[in-house]
Design a protein that fits this description.
The protein is mainly alpha-helical and about 150 residues long. The protein has a domain at about 15-110: Substrate Binding Domain Of Dnak, Chain:A, Domain 2. The protein has four helices and no strands. The longest helix is centred in the N-terminal third of the chain and has 31 residues, at about 25-55. The chain is flat, with a radius of gyration of 30 Å. The protein starts with 12 loop residues before the first helix and ends in a 38-residue tail after the last helix.
Length: about 150
């Protein structure tokens, strides 16, 4: 058995050149359309993230920030219904600022990891352990193969 694959129709050199000219002529439109799509996708993702944060952290978010965030999400969703990219970007910026406030409020309530920092921001000198961090029960061990 033998299988041969051949092109049933080919493009002439003129047709290829015409397609290239068309692509170059529409490059600016394509770039603008791509920016619109990427902006809308980013706005949708940001709104989803904000909604998820509202659901998961509702009890940790102060009521005034909660309402502000809900309003900003609605503004982004509303802007996404239209085609004004600048309005979408503005709504995204406002939502981003509201998300930062919420993040500060939520994570500001949690104690810093690793316990309390040294008083007045001092760090212990090189080679010294911070107060209260002396030997915390480190045990040396030996092993042998059986």
């Amino acid at each position: 058995q033998k299988i041969t694959i051949t092109a049933s129709s080919g493009l002439s050199k003129e047709e290829v050149e015409k397609m290239q000219r068309d692509a170059e002529a529409h490059a600016a439109e394509d770039a603008k359309r791509r920016e619109e799509i990427e902006t809308k996708n980013a706005a949708d993702t940001m709104a989803y993230t904000a909604e998820k944060t509202l659901r998961e952290q509702k009890d940790k978010i102060p009521e005034d920030l909660n309402k502000e965030l809900e309003e900003k999400v609605k503004a982004v969703r509303s802007a996404l219904q239209g085609s004004d990219i600048e309005a979408i970007k503005k709504a995204m910026q406002e939502l981003s600022e509201a998300m930062q406030k919420v993040g500060t409020a939520v994570y500001g309530q949690q104690p810093p990891p690793g316990g309390e920092p040294p008083p007045s921001g001092e760090t212990p000198p090189e080679g010294e352990t911070p107060p209260g961090k002396e030997d915390e029960g480190t045990v040396e061990g030996e092993f042998r193969e059986v």
